[in-house]
Amino acid sequence: MSDDVAKGPAPAGTPRVVTPLEIQQKEFAVSRFGGYRMKDVDEFLDELTESTSAIVDENERLRRAVSDLTLDKQILAEAAKGNF
Fold first, then answer.
1. Among candidate residues 75, 15, 32, 26, the one with its CA nearest the CA of residue 48
2. 27 phi/psi in degrees, rounded to 5
3. Could you please report the per-residue DSSP string of 45-77?
4. Is residue 78 one of the residues assigned to a domain?
5. pTM of the predicted model, to two decimals?
6. pLDDT in the model for residue 6
7. Does 77 map to a domain?
């Protein structure tokens, strides 16, 4: 999986992409008088990391597929013009 997703500014109006690594490394302040159980937070972050990783992987696969199809379209357009 690539970390290229988080590089560069996001287009206006879109949320910043949080990487699986950022999710995994997120730390929460511990309250002296209660607050979240760290075990629960850790388990949730593990689930979130796995889910986000799968989404990023799927996004990369789809980007490659679109790129391949775009190239195929260009090749077919040239072939249709007789430029093969």
1. 26
2. -115, 145
3. HHHHHHHHHHHHHHHHHHHHHHHHHHHHHHHHH
4. yes
5. 0.57
6. 47
7. yes
- pLDDT value, residue 3: 46
Residue 32 lies in a domain: no
In a domain, residue 67? The reply is yes
Long-range contacts of residues 55-63, Cβ cutoff 8 Å, at least 24 apart = 56/1, 56/2, 56/5, 56/19, 56/20, 57/1, 59/5, 60/1, 60/2, 60/5
List the one residue out of 54, 25, 28 whose CA is nearest residue 40: 28
Which residues of the chain are under the pLDDT cut of 50? 1-6
- Tell me 27's DSSP state: -
Tokens of 21: 């690594």
- Residue 75: what residue type? I
- Domain that residue 46 falls in: 37-84
Tally of CB atoms within 10 A around 32: 6
State the total domains in the chain. Answer: 1
